[in-house]
Amino acid sequence: MKHFPRTNCHVVAKRPFRGEAATAALSKQSPPPRQAKALVAALRDIVRDMFIVDDAASDLPLRQLRVCMILAAGPQSMSALSRELGVSLSATTQIADRLVAAGLAQRLPEGTDRRVRCLQLTPRGRQIMERRDRIKARRAQAALRRMRPGESKKLMSALAALQSACQESRLP
Predict the structure, then answer these.
(1) By CB count within 10 A, which of 25, 90, 139, 160 is most buried?
(2) pLDDT digits (tens, 9 = 90+) for 58-69
(3) Residues 75, 87: Cα–Cα separation, whole Å
């Protein structure tokens, strides 16, 4: 592992596969396309069944809902929101304008620099997001209760492995 002190980054060097060894390794490691499609379909159904909540926030476009979900953890600067969403600062400002107009968020000065603003949920916005979280938690709890003993532990282990693999697959 190399460490770059100026950026405080760590890079794990991987030796690339070559020739037949690469083909053999990839064929052993790569899941069949059917398996990947089945995973996508299962995750889509799980998200629909457990996490789609029909409430006041349901009418929000996805990016506005995502901002509300981020703000549920606490106030964020506009630049931090912009980075998190992967959109320009002007696009983030437009999203914020719409949330403020809907009464779900409010702008506040951040620190002593009056030019820097942060966005936070209003009490109404927080109430809506907390209600959504309670509904999702109840659905998850009900689903876990329906599983046979030991299945929930296996599920949590498999989900942790999937989450780790997803994070690793995002590496350059």
Answers:
(1) 139
(2) 678 889 999 999
(3) 18
